[in-house]
DNA sequence: ACGAGACTAACACAGCTGTGCTAAAACGGA
DNA sequence: TCCGTTTTAGCACAGCTGTGTTAGTCTCGT
């Protein structure tokens, strides 16, 4: 039998090399050869794991969403409901270098996915993450509602969408102008928004 | 004397061809030749107006922001303050096909600009638009405040940032999932948010 | 040890890339 | 009419692009 290399791990390694290239030079520079160089292998090796580069792109985009999902499921839902809510939101926002990089990459993928609108595989990944995030917001608002903390007259569905939009908007601002929209400021705004929903 | 072609107009025409390419096939496909074909000229003609393609990219991105600025300044500030506020927000959101296209293109440019972080010319354009939009939000909240309509206890600065984040978040959602986040829904959410700020 | 299967590297190919360059066409004033 | 300038098209070049193919290397169960 051959030498055994974990196929899945190797694919992820290559996808992460693609991330670094996209983050550094933009998606325009993400070619098989540049990615291979970044990963430290030959182009042939990369093509062994990914026969065509559309597959690579798609896998790399999907990997981002899987990483985010992992991070979210790793959060332990302990403490008061509002503090749990804030912890989840905190985990989704690009407030440290690693997640800022992740967001930049996600932004590049989204933009590319918008081009292949409809038919493309990439757009499906956008939808998946988008829906996951909306579902997260929904469950957070629902949690507040179930705990009887939600202010009277607030509509759960509406507050879900507002929270979701605020979340993505703040994420964008934190990524685009990190020196102005600092992590501290983002957390503060998020906390104040959640507090404005409470009784 | 030579034949006279309006240089500025021609440059805008070419930039718009670039927009269509970016929108249709993504920024990866935006080469001098594809743009020339889209515009209906030879590659040489395009290169006459834009010696290098970085200049073209930069000009095209800048043109987006100039168009948005034009649209905003064209709004007449008549009527009640809240209705004026909503009209401005309405004009900035991608709620029709043309502005959705514009947003997709802007998204692609932003993603590219994030790559050349710091040094690049593109990032400066991102900042410009971002600051313009924040300034718009600030003046809208200030208008509400000056009219004495703002609810007691609300901080102008904080509500500016919240509105700005909500605006960009909703814009993203309207672009990414237009069938779910319909124009009607976006307008409704925006209206309700503004109402939540009123006394 | 050895050979089957997993893995790697390298080449070829046609086509595209940005950019430099040149020749010609289009045009308006004289 | 014709000259001088602006505008256009096209070529050349070196280098990169995705993808096919092929020959090789490595590893491990037998």
UniProtKB/TrEMBL annotation, chains A, B:
The keyword Repressor applies. Transmembrane segments: none annotated. Residues 8-68 form the HTH tetR-type domain. It holds the Pfam family TetR_N. Keywords: DNA-binding, Repressor, Transcription, Transcription regulation. Residues 31-50 bind DNA. Coiled coil: none annotated. InterPro entries: BetI_C (IPR039538), Homeodomain-like_sf (IPR009057), HTH-type_TetR-like_transc_reg (IPR050109), HTH_TetR (IPR001647), Tet_transcr_reg_TetR-rel_C_sf (IPR036271). PANTHER family: HTH-TYPE TRANSCRIPTIONAL REGULATOR BETI, HTH-TYPE TRANSCRIPTIONAL REGULATOR RUTR. This is TetR/AcrR family transcriptional regulator. It comes from Kribbella karoonensis.
């Amino acid at each position: 039998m051959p030498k055994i290399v974990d196929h899945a791990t190797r694919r992820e390694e290559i996808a992460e090399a693609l991330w670094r290239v996209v983050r550094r030079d933009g998606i325009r520079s993400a070619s098989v050869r540049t990615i291979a160089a970044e990963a430290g292998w030959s182009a042939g090796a990369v093509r062994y794991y990914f026969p065509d580069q559309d597959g690579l792109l798609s896998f790399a985009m999907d990997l981002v969403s899987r990483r985010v999902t992992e991070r979210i499921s790793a959060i332990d839902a302990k403490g008061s409901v509002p503090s749990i809510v804030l912890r989840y939101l905190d985990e989704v926002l690009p407030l440290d270098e690693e997640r800022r990089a992740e967001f930049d990459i996600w932004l590049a993928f989204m933009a590319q996915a918008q081009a292949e609108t409809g038919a493309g595989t990439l757009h499906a990944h956008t939808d998946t993450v988008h829906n996951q995030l909306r579902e997260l917001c929904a469950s957070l608002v629902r949690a507040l509602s179930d705990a009887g903390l939600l202010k009277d007259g607030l509509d759960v569905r509406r507050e879900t969408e507002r929270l979701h939009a605020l979340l993505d908007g703040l994420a964008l601002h934190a990524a685009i102008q990190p020196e102005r929209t600092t992590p501290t400021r983002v957390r503060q705004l998020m906390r104040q928004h959640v507090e404005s929903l409470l009784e």
